[in-house]
Design goal:
The structure holds 2 protein chains of 2 kinds.
Chain A: H1 2-53, E1 67-73, E2 78-84, H2 88-93, E3 96-101, E4 107-112, E5 130-135, E6 139-150, E7 154-158, E8 165-171, E9 184-191, E10 202-203, H3 205-210
Parallel strand pairs in A: 2-3, 4-8
Antiparallel strand pairs in A: 1-2, 1-5, 3-4, 5-6, 6-9, 7-10, 8-9
Chain B: H1 2-53, E1 77-87, E2 90-100, E3 106-114, E4 120-128, E5 131-134, E6 136-139, H2 140-152, E7 155-161, E8 167-175, E9 180-190, E10 197-202, E11 210-214, E12 220-224, E13 241-248, E14 253-257, E15 263-267, E16 272-277, E17 287-293, E18 300-308, E19 311-319, E20 332-339, H3 347-362, E21 368-374, E22 378-380, E23 386-387, H4 390-401, H5 411-418, E24 428-435, H6 442-452, E25 457-463, H7 469-478, E26 483-486, H8 492-504, E27 509-515, E28 520-523, E29 536-542, E30 548-555, E31 558-565, H9 575-593, H10 596-612, E32 620-629, E33 636-640, E34 656-660, H11 668-701
Parallel strand pairs in B: 1-13, 3-33, 20-21, 20-24, 24-25, 25-26
Antiparallel strand pairs in B: 1-2, 2-9, 3-8, 4-5, 4-9, 6-32, 7-8, 7-32, 10-17, 11-12, 13-16, 14-17, 15-16, 18-19, 19-29, 21-22, 21-23, 27-30, 28-29, 30-31
Helix pairs in contact in B: 3-4, 3-8, 5-6, 6-7, 9-10
Classes of the chains: A alpha+beta, B alpha+beta.
């Protein structure tokens, strides 16, 4: 009799344990979503300040990075505020951008974000979609012209590239849950009106070596 | 009887159930642990990844030269002869570059090559037959104008520029078809004594790389190094470099060898050697020559003096005596500051903690110490430095063990804690600052350090792809300490431990110069401590030649004096050049640190010193122009001379540039599923236990 009651108690305990674990998972999800959402609000404020004073402002005083751009995706009716760098800390709050220079001296803007917070729409972008990248100094309109799935988290850019380029990348959606997340989805956009000389400026490392 | 049997059977059933429950519980525990680890681990992994991706060296890179005008079929070639004259630590190097133009066009050549980090170029000449045309130093843009004008006028001309990163540029215009132009420049460097000897390095190749740079906008950028253009890896090495060296070692040497080249060595005096080296095959690696002396028991001092521009320029070489085992230990106050921000998580924090632990072990009973942690806030283990007794050390170790890495990076508060207003005079106060952080507000931080430093020595350890090495090097220079950069995460512990061992026992501290003349313009402005097997080089000006040298310092905690009468062997050339080089470097650092209004004045001061001492710098270039025009009408072809690919390098992905991508998935969908699954399990358990209860109650009722 006593043993039986003990077993039942254990069972109840186990049940509560399961509930706690389950809820903590969901809380984690909520926490990540909340961070991504609140990040955008805070960064929006900082960005407005940056625009007014024409100098960079941190979104919160202990931040490791600064807001550097605003990205408008017209087809998705979305506006995203972008932080500098590509650190895990920055990515938790907002899409993050690093700027590189192509062989011919043109800027390459590489914007990365998580595929389940800010870049959920990435794989549904279509060729011809307009992207508006507002930097502190200027605003450029880019047109989506190329989409590609990469097997490895690295991107090769041909030295034939002769215009500026905006790259949006994120982990491949179908890979969620797998360990490692090797595959990346890349959307390349070029300044509206620019004619491309090279056919395939971005590529997988594996593809390039065969050529 | 029956009742008992029934009971037994139920109890065994319960037992069985309990056992399965136990198994399920174990499984659940494992799953729970797994989920917990996954939640924590995913974050850590993401951070570590980005760190790897941010690493500065990216060998898969090829570059194109930017060429304009005509393309030359048979390329220009450069033959380099290097004449090195070494007296003690002073090295004067004469580099002769012969630009050969085998084509039928008039040519302009551009050649980029590295020079030693401490090289100060102060002479340029161009040879035309028997005539020698001396180059002159001008401000950079003026030199460029002179060069361009001469080029347009068809005169033979050469310009030498020193852009950033120790890559120098020679531009030679109007090389007649089938002929060559020979130019020569002289630079000087002063070698630093390490481990009882000197190592001379003449860089021949520059490795291709990306430069991680912080742009003005504060974002991190990587630029492919578009300045260099490489020869195809399959072609044999061009641009041979030959070395002709005379070496006066000053004292009897113990060993001499070159790890890079074959040497032809000939002894011409008791301490004098003639050395020849170099061939085309060996021009894809840097030249290294090293020699060592026997360990010295007494302090060694040497003063070199040069009279130039109405002033005496002096260089003091000070080598502390070999450590005495009887030497008194000078008690230290050691403050360890450890970055525990999120980016340190993983291997960095693990190894840094191990190294700090080791440093705590090395503390002596008479030492004082404190341990400070920082991320977005800063906190210390003790409110102020405490004696290093077993109790306190154990407490610090416990705090260290319990520390994990999370949060952002804010350094200013940590510096405030580490450099308090009231500092000890009694102990040697050392602050070791360990971080991997990017620093944004460097000017404010440097100002803060300068203000609060007091008597402290500041040592900085930079870990990983820290983008702000400049700040860290400069801060440790200001703080009379050293900067250790650790790029490889696997070396963190080992390199930090060797730093701790080094600063454990400085050979000579609190050094003061007591001369019979007044010392002006001393560089470095504050005399640093000297560590084991290292030496100090001090440069200063004076109105008359010093005749007696007295140096005061602390060896352990005992004051020592070194005295030496000087014979006026006044004229060693090159001291003023070395003084000017250091002054230029110091000004350069100040220019980077100051706001706009003082900047112009500092640039003027730098240019003035560079022009006076005939030195090229970031703001001044050397240019030489022949008097007579030789080209009229014919077009000029431009070509950048291709460098040899460093030994062991291959440019595989020709024509592409690689960008590394970060980890960009939270796995939210999966995590939601897992969460719901657990709730489902809970529900099932609830139903099951309800059923079981009802069952037992009904049976009890029966």
């Amino acid at each position: 009799m006593l043993k039986q009651r003990w077993a039942q108690k254990k069972m109840t305990l186990l049940m509560f344990l399961c509930i706690v674990v389950g809820l903590s998972c969901l809380a984690q999800v909520f926490f990540i979503e909340a961070k991504a959402f609140i990040g955008q609000v805070l960064i929006e404020n900082a960005w407005q300040k940056s625009l007014e004073k024409k100098e960079l402002h941190k979104a919160w005083p202990w931040a490791d990075t600064y807001p550097v751009a605003r990205l408008g995706i017209q087809s998705q009716d979305q506006t995203l505020y972008v932080l500098a760098g590509d650190s895990g800390e920055a990515l938790a709050f907002a899409p993050s951008m690093t700027t590189h220079t192509s062989f011919r001296g043109q800027p390459i803007y590489l914007v990365q974000a998580h595929n389940d917070t800010h870049f959920t729409f990435l794989e549904s972008l279509e060729d011809g979609d307009q992207l508006v990248l507002e930097l502190l100094s200027k605003t450029d309109v880019f047109t989506v012209a190329e989409k590609r799935l990469l097997k490895k988290p690295q991107l090769m850019i041909s030295d034939e590239l002769d215009t500026a380029m905006l790259l949006l990348t994120s982990c491949h959606l179908a890979q969620n849950g797998e360990v490692g997340h090797q595959k990346r989805f890349v959307v390349a956009a070029y300044p509206s009106g620019a004619s491309l000389r090279s056919k395939m400026p971005i590529s997988d490392s594996t593809i390039k070596e065969k050529e | 009887m029956q009742m008992i049997e029934v009971k037994r059977s139920t109890s065994s059933r319960v037992n069985l159930k309990l056992m399965t429950l136990k198994a399920v519980a174990y499984d659940c525990l494992w799953l729970f642990c797994f989920v917990a680890f996954w939640l924590i681990g995913d974050h850590a992994l993401a951070v570590e990844r980005t760190l790897q991706f941010g690493a500065p060296e990216q060998p898969n890179l090829s570059l194109r030269s930017i060429e304009s005008g005509h393309q030359i079929e048979s390329p220009l070639a450069v033959n380099t002869d290097v004449y090195i004259d070494i007296v003690g630590p002073i090295v004067r190097t004469r580099v002769v570059q012969q630009f050969m133009n085998p084509s039928q066009y008039w040519a302009e050549g551009l050649y980029r090559y590295p020079l030693p980090e401490n090289a100060a170029v102060d002479q340029l000449s161009m040879y035309i037959g028997e005539r020698i045309i001396e180059g002159q130093v001008h401000e950079k843009h003026k030199a460029k104008n002179i060069y361009t004008q001469a080029k347009r006028d068809g005169k033979r001309t050469v310009m030498l520029e020193a852009p950033k990163d120790n890559l120098f540029t020679t531009q030679v215009a109007n090389i007649p078809p089938g002929e060559s132009i020979k130019i020569e420049f002289v630079y000087q460097e002063v070698l630093a004594l390490r481990d009882h000897g000197y190592a001379l390095r003449f860089p021949i190749v520059a490795t291709p790389r990306y430069y991680p740079r912080r742009s003005d906008a504060g974002m991190q950028q990587t630029h492919p190094d578009a300045k260099l253009s490489y020869r195809d890896a399959n072609t044999p090495n061009g641009n041979p470099v030959n070395f002709h060296i005379t070496l006066d070692t000053g004292m009897a040497i113990q060993t001499m060898h070159s790890a890079s080249h074959k040497l032809k060595r000939e002894q011409v005096g008791p301490t004098r050697y003639k050395i020849e080296a170099g061939s085309g095959q060996e021009s894809n690696r840097d030249f290294v020559l090293s020699w060592t002396y026997k360990a010295q028991e007494n302090a060694q001092m040497r003063l070199f003096t040069e009279y130039s521009n109405d002033k005496y320029y002096n260089m003091l070489m000070l080598l502390p005596p070999a450590p005495d085992t009887q030497m008194n230990y000078r008690a230290r106050e050691l403050t360890l500051v450890l970055d525990v921000s999120g980016s340190m998580s993983g291997e960095s924090i693990r190894q840094a903690k191990a190294a700090v632990n080791e440093a705590l072990d090395q503390l002596q009973i008479e030492d004082q110490f404190n341990l400070i942690f920082f991320n977005d806030r800063s906190w210390s283990v003790f409110p102020q430095a405490k004696p290093a007794n077993a109790n306190n050390v154990a407490r610090a170790k416990r705090a260290l063990r319990n520390q994990s890495a999370s949060g952002g990076t804010r350094m200013s508060e940590a510096f405030q804690l580490a450099l308090p207003l009231s500092q000890t005079q009694e102990w040697l106060r050392q602050v070791v600052f360990i971080t991997d952080g990017a620093v944004g507000n460097t000017d404010q931080l440097l100002a803060q350090i300068k203000r609060a430093l007091g008597t402290s020595r500041l040592f900085i350890v930079g870990i990983g792809a820290a983008p702000n090495s400049y700040f860290m090097r400069r801060a440790s220079e200001v703080g009379r300490g050293t900067y250790a950069y650790i790029g490889q995460l696997t070396q963190v512990e080992q390199k930090m431990v060797s730093l701790f061992e080094k600063i454990n026992k400085p050979a000579l501290t609190e050094i003061e110069l007591l001369l019979d003349v007044s010392v002006d313009a001393l560089l470095p402005t504050k005399i640093p401590d000297i560590y084991l097997n290292e030496m100090a080089l001090l440069l200063f000006q004076s109105q008359s030649a010093p005749t007696e040298l007295l140096i005061k310092g602390l060896q352990g905690d005992a004051p020592v004096y070194f005295q030496q009468a000087l014979e006026t062997e006044a004229d060693v050339s090159g001291i003023s050049v070395e003084w000017a080089r250091r002054k230029i470097k110091d000004l350069q650092a100040q220019i980077l640190e100051t706001s706009t209004d003082r900047k112009a004045a500092l640039i003027d001061e730098l240019s003035e010193i560079a022009l006076k001492h005939n030195q090229i710098s970031r703001y001044t270039s050397l240019v030489a122009v022949d008097v007579t025009p030789i080209r009229a009408g014919a077009t000029l072809a431009f070509e950048q001379i291709r460098s040899n690919l460093p030994k062991g390098w291959q440019l595989k992905q020709q024509g592409t540039q690689t960008l590394a991508l970060a980890q960009t998935s939270n796995g939210l969908a999966w995590m939601t599923h897992v969460g719901l699954l657990w709730l489902l399990v809970a529900l099932a358990l609830g139903v099951f236990s309800c059923n079981a209860r009802r069952h037992s109650r009904s049976r009890n009722g029966a």
